[in-house]
């Protein structure tokens, strides 16, 4: 069925082409249309579209229809063309807002050419738009084809729902317009796309395709055949002009969308394009017809159309001015047409000058003038503001000198506004640098530079000196100690410098690592080799000085660290553990402030409580260890003479031994006596009777304050 329809369409197209060639009838000669007019338009007032108009026809005095179209600058919904029918009762005007076209027809019969001429002269343009910036152009023609003055071509939309691109191409090429063969339109500019696409009565095929080379879109119809206008898909690029709708071309679902169609007005941007397959799509993407373009570079002029225009007087550019403190200024403006008028107010006010430039009176404050263009009393609205800015003279608000040990100095200056200009003298005219920060050349001596502030040629009256000071003095300072001890029980120590001969910053390093501190003293928490050097204000650096930090600690001693020999001919104590801490230690017995020895061994000790003092040689403190020397008597004589009347353990101290059990037995193992902690000992009695001279046995169980337990047994003699 579709094939039959296509054949019918092609047949009808060919039939139209055959009968459009007048082989057997007299050729109707085309009339000649003339129109003049390029007028200024005052918003809110109607304006005639022509200042003169005529139409002549060698073989006719009447005409069926005449068309006037707003061909450029048309704003649908705002712009209209109107004719007062009361003045022209034989003319019927019909306005088409979608195409921006006014059609003139006769009432009941054809129009006399004289009636048409009078009517066209009375057609006026009206608009409700508030702001109009573009020129309006009008095409006046005897045919319904749309004429575009920019190209000199004619365009016609042919409605044909569902027609394929191939059939549309064939059908377009069968059409003629006063000898010009048609072709699917090639829209190569925005003006042409707007005119043919937006003002056509429907969407339709145009002559673009990438069927030969995918993603290489060319015009394949008319005189522009072979011209590439787009490379790629959605994110492609144009070497000339393209007007794809948003998201196009997309070759939707890889369906062979190789042909360009002006998108339905309901979808996306009006007049923009999308890609479709040869048969078109469905719904809003169904092919609605095609747009035929008539015109080639070789065509001779066709005088069936004339063009006029109106314009709004516009200020197209203006130049503000800036002055310093006070004075006159020259401001300027350019208009597209007419005379330039200068006012002192945005509305009404006084006219102060005419012409492209205006030299103001002397000003002390920023002042705004307003400029308009005027053509035959039609004046630009609103007026354009042109400003003369009066700026206060800038000043230098701050400067910073720089002192260096050698090399370059960095000087800074800040202006209240504008730029900072640097000079090498008070009177030099050429700045050596422009900017807030200036780095000098290598200094050989202290040098003074001069700065000023400058804005738009307005410079401070007096230059400000800025000094680059060269000071090669090497810093000098002392350290009170070159060796410190960091005791283990102290978190930190302070390393110090003293007697600086200037205002210095200090560089501290531990071994080869630079520390963050820059003050004259620092707190350290670890041992090592510390180095300090001083940096002068000018940046000169001293030699490094070494400070050694050694870690040490007070001794820690327990019962496991000593060997005590008692009840012997030579009672002694010996420090058996050489490592009592991280320090180096020396020893003293029973006198913390007495003489110390490097050897922890003391002998010939008397029975009793003794104290061993251990002193850290680096000064971290003195530790002490209390111990007891015991002696076990071999006999006693309880005869009441006050000598050896009691048997007890020599050196036993109840406060030192927290637990004690001293028992005495006879030779048969019978418990005779137990010595209490605070008693004098055993007096030789048993149950109130004096025991005879004999050998007796003892057993001692003691626990000292260190938790050390002593167990001892033996015998002794009772002598009476």
Structure commentary:
The protein has 720 residues and is mostly beta strands. It has seven domains: 32-146; 157-294, Mannose-Binding Protein A, subunit A (Mannose-Binding Protein A, Chain A), CATH 3.10.100; 315-391, SoxY domain (Immunoglobulin-like, Sandwich); 396-470, Sandwich (Immunoglobulin-like), CATH 2.60.40; 483-548, Immunoglobulin-like; 559-629, Immunoglobulin-like, CATH 2.60.40; 635-718, Immunoglobulin-like. Strands 2-23-12-6-9-8 form a six-stranded mixed beta sheet, with helices on one face. Strands 25, 27, 28, 30, 31 and 32 form a six-stranded mixed beta sheet that branches. Strands 34, 36, 37, 39, 40 and 41 form a six-stranded mixed beta sheet that branches. β49 (562-565) and β50 form a beta hairpin. It is elongated. Residues 1-27 have low confidence and may be disordered.
State the shape: elongated
The CATH superfamily name of the largest domain is: Mannose-Binding Protein A, subunit A
Tally of DSSP β-strands: 61
Span of the ends, CA to CA? 157 Å
The side-by-side strand order for the widest beta sheet comes to 2-23-12-6-9-8
Rg result: 59 Å
On the 0 to 100 scale, the average pLDDT is 90
Percent of residues in helical segments?
under 10%
CATH architecture of the largest domain: Roll
CATH fold call of the largest domain: Mannose-Binding Protein A, Chain A
* Unreliable segments of 5+ consecutive residues: 1-27
CATH top level of the largest domain?
A: Alpha Beta
How does the major sheet shape up?
6 strands, mixed
- Number of separate helices: 4
Return the structural class: mainly beta
Q: How much strand content do the residues show?
A: 35-45%
Query: How many domains, as an integer?
Result: 7
């Amino acid at each position: 069925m579709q094939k039959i329809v296509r054949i019918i369409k092609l047949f009808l197209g060919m039939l139209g082409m055959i009968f459009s060639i007048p082989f057997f009838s007299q050729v109707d000669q085309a009339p000649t249309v003339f129109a003049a007019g390029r007028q200024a338009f005052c918003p809110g007032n109607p304006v005639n579209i022509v200042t003169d108009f005529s139409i002549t026809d060698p073989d006719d005095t009447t005409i069926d229809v005449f068309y006037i179209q707003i061909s450029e600058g048309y704003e649908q919904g705002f712009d209209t063309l109107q004719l007062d029918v009361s003045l022209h009762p034989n003319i019927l005007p019909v306005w088409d807002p979608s195409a921006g076209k006014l059609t003139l027809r006769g009432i009941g019969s054809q129009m006399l050419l004289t009636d048409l001429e009078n009517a066209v002269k009375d057609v006026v343009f009206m608009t409700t738009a508030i702001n109009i910036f573009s020129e309006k152009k009008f095409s006046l023609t005897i045919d319904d084809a749309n004429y575009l003055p920019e190209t000199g071509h004619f365009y016609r939309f042919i409605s044909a729902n569902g027609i394929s691109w191939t059939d549309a191409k064939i059908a377009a090429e069968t059409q003629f317009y006063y000898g010009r063969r048609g072709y699917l339109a090639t829209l190569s500019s925005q003006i042409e796309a707007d005119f043919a696409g937006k003002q056509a009565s429907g969407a339709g095929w145009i002559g673009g395709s990438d069927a030969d080379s995918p993603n290489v879109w060319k015009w394949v119809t008319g005189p522009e055949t072979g011209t590439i206008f787009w490379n790629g898909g959605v994110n492609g690029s144009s070497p000339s002009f393209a007007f794809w709708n948003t998201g196009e071309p997309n070759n939707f679902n890889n369906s062979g969308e190789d042909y360009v169609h002006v998108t339905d007005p309901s979808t996306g941007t009006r007049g923009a394009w999308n890609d479709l397959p040869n048969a078109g799509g469905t719904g809003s993407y169904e092919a609605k017809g095609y747009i035929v373009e008539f015109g080639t570079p070789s065509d001779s002029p066709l005088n069936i159309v004339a063009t006029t225009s109106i314009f709004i007087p516009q200020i197209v550019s203006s130049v503000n001015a800036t002055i310093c403190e006070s004075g006159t200024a020259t401001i300027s403006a350019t208009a597209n047409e007419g005379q330039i008028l200068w006012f002192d107010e945005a509305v009404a006010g006084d006219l102060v000058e005419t012409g492209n430039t205006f030299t103001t009176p002397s000003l002390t404050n920023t002042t705004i003038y307003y400029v308009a263009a005027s053509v035959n009393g039609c004046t630009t609205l609103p007026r354009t503001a042109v400003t003369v800015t009066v700026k206060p003279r800038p000043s230098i608000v701050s400067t910073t000198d720089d002192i260096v040990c050698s090399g370059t100095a960095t000087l800074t200056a800040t202006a209240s506004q504008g730029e900072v200009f640097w000079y090498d003298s008070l009177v030099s005219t050429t700045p050596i640098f422009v900017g807030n920060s200036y780095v000098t050349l290598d200094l050989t001596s202290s040098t003074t530079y001069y700065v000023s502030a400058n804005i738009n040629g307005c410079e401070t009256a007096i230059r400000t000196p800025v000094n680059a000071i060269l000071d090669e003095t090497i810093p000098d300072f002392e350290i009170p100690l070159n060796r410190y001890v960091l005791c283990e029980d102290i978190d930190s120590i302070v390393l110090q410098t003293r007697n600086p001969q200037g205002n210095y910053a200090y560089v501290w390093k531990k071994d080869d690592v630079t520390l963050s501190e820059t003050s004259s003293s620092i707190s350290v928490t670890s041992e090592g080799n510390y180095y300090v050097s001083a940096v002068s204000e000018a940046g000169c650096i001293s030699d490094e000085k070494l400070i050694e930090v050694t870690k040490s600690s007070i001794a820690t001693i327990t019962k496991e660290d000593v060997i005590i020999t008692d009840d012997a001919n030579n009672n002694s104590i010996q420090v058996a553990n050489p490592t009592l801490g991280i320090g180096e230690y020396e020893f003293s017995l029973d006198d913390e402030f007495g003489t110390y020895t490097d050897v922890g061994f003391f002998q010939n000790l008397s029975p009793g409580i003794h104290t061993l003092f251990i002193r850290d040689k680096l000064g971290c403190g003195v530790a002490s260890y209390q111990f007891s020397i015991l002696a076990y008597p071999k006999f006693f004589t309880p005869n009441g003479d006050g000598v050896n009347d009691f048997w007890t353990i020599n050196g036993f101290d109840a406060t030192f031994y927290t637990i004690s059990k001293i028992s005495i037995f006879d030779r048969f193992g019978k418990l005779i006596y137990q010595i209490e902690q605070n008693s004098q000992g055993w007096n030789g009695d048993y149950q109130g009777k004096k025991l005879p001279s004999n050998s007796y046995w003892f057993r001692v169980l003691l626990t000292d304050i260190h938790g050390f337990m002593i167990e001892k047994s033996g015998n002794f003699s009772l002598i009476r």
